[in-house]
Write a structure and sequence with these properties.
single chain, 90 residues, mainly beta, tt1808, chain A, 4-stranded mixed beta sheet, two-stranded antiparallel ribbon, 1 helix
Length: 90
Amino acid sequence: MPAGVLHTQPKHAPRHKKSGIHAREGVSRLWFVDTNARTLEAFGLRKERWVPLAALADGDPVSLPHFDAVNFPLDALRPDGVPDLDEGEE
């Protein structure tokens, strides 16, 4: 069954380590959400490689495979008034 991984991560954090674990465990979809930059990168697993599915920003509508029954603005993942993470926080 495909799964989405919603993850807030500092820019310096290595994504490839966790991506490999997810691929090995059969996760077929990954979402990387940067709440400070208000972006979402979506990837799908094809032939043991992660391929980009979408790159969204600000209020772009989110409607991605296996989760496309619900359409919502990316801004909904981080409402106004939520403070940015400091560089050292995760």
